[in-house]
Amino acid sequence: QVQLVESGGGLVQAGGSLRLSCAASGRTVYAMGWFRQAPGKEREFVAALSRSGVSTRYADSVKGRFTVSRDNAKNTVYLQMNSLKPEDTAVYYCAAGRSTTAVPTTYDYWGQGTQVTVSS
After folding, report:
1. Residues of the chain below pLDDT 50
2. What's the pLDDT at 84?
3. C-alpha radius of gyration, the chain, whole number
4. In the chain, what is the greatest distance between 2 CA atoms, to the nearest angstrom?
């Protein structure tokens, strides 16, 4: 069993930055993903990171602006978000799974989410 807790969300102006954290407890040898869901929309893939941290994957909409990383000693995964846009506004979720896929149903464990709001 894995428990995931996100933090770091908040309100930021367009062009600003935020860093989300996802602290994991329990068995933590998993690939990790970040997803987001805006009101009235389906959950969408943002980024993923392999267990080793070597392999990464990003949605086209965030490439060059977001960076995913992990500190396995702290059992924590990060999502550094720069040059934020109003369309990045959503609840952001971290998830643990067996590979760095973009498909939500392939992830086994989910956090509760953290709200990110980008004002124009």
Report:
1. none
2. 98
3. 13
4. 40
Q: Give CA separation, 13 vs 18, 89, 104, in Å.
A: 10, 11, 28
Distance CA 53, CA 20 (A): 16
Instruction: Identify the burial level of 59 via C-beta atoms within 10 angstroms of its C-beta, where 0-12 means exposed, 13-18 middle and 19 or more buried.
Output: middle
What is the layout of strands, in order, in the sheet containing 2-7? 2-7, 18-26, 76-81, 66-71
70: its two tokens: 């992990």
- Give the chain's mean pLDDT: 95
Burial of 84 (0-12, 13-18, 19+ CB in 10 A): buried
What digits encode the pLDDT tens for the residues 72-82? 889 999 999 99
Q: Return d(Cα 34, Cα 96) in angstroms, integer.
A: 9
69 is written with which tokens?
């990383």
